[in-house]
Structures are given as structure tokens and as C-alpha cells.
């Protein structure tokens, strides 16, 4: 019985928390909560405590523990956030937005920052609204496989050019019956090598 009482006293002592007035403070209103003063003192020497800006990350009413499970909101995975759509129009290079759209290689794709926010059911530390980089890619319903099939079987009638949005070129290809077959073969080669893309600079729709 005495051993049980001593064990309960030790557990209660280890879980005892300091009064709010005795907690270590950062700035004017930011407070870091720890179960023991020794726990806080030991964590202050941790490299993460030296690198993280506690004042910038904390918000009123949120207990901040950089070494605990509460991660910064800006680090939340994409499936738990909602971001604004990338505008369809282009802007000047020195302005915020996409200088251009499209690109077949990673080195050719431009990036821009969009406003994102964390879902309401997700808990995190710091501002729940932030910016995240997004590629300047847009999709307008063009599929590579269907376009290639159009080019193979109906390319002599310029169906592939019309589908991609090249109406003027499509009329010329139709009137010459695919350039007597030469233009038809050239467009098949251009499609297969990635050198013929939609006229609106959009990318091929992805397959999931």
C-alpha cells in the first residue's frame, strides 16, 4: 500500500505543470508550455529551438512546442490544404503570376506563388494562410493518345490540327489532303516527338 502511494505521488509530481504566470515567455503574448521547468531548460539548447522563430510561428491561444507534434502550417501536405487557382492569363515577368504557360521539360516550366490555407479540421502552428509555389501549367481537355490516333487515321483530313486549335493551318492541310500525304506524315512525327502541342500552350491532360 505504501509503495502504491509513493508511485502515485511520483507520477503526479512528474506531470505537475507550472502556473501560467511562471511559464517562460517569448515576446509579449507568446507562451511555450512544458510539463517541467527542467524539460524546458533542456530543450532550449536543442538546435531546432535556436533556428525556429518562435514569435513568427505562434498565435494567440496556441501552445507552441517546436519539438512536439504541432507542425508549422506551411509544412502541411497538399492533401490537407486548399490553394487558389492559377490565373489563366499571363503577366509580365516582374509581376506576380505566370510569365508563360506550358513546357514539356521540367527546366522549361515556370513557377508562381499562390495563396493556400489549411483545412479547418487540421491543427498546426503559425499562420493558417500562406503561399506555396505552383507550376504554370494549365489543362484544356487535350489528350495525347486521342490526338495521336486522330493524326494516324484522320490526319489526312486535318482532324488533328483542328482538335489542337490550329484552324487556319487545318484548312490548308485539309484542302491539300494532308499535303499529298507528306504533311500528314510530318504531323505524326511532330506529335510523337513532342514538338506539336495544343495551340493555347496548354499541357496534355494527365492520366490517373
TrEMBL record:
It comes from the Eukaryota. It is found in: Membrane. Keywords: Glycoprotein, Membrane, Signal, Transmembrane, Transmembrane helix. One of its GO terms (cellular component) is membrane. The keyword Signal applies. The chain crosses the membrane at residues 141-159, 171-192. It is a multi-pass membrane protein. Its main location: membrane. The keyword Membrane applies. Residues 1-16 form the signal peptide. Pfam families: TM2 (PF05154). Residues 142-189 form the TM2 domain. Belongs to the TM2 family. PANTHER family: BETA-AMYLOID BINDING PROTEIN-RELATED, TM2 DOMAIN-CONTAINING PROTEIN 2. This is TM2 domain-containing protein. It comes from Pristionchus pacificus (Parasitic nematode worm).
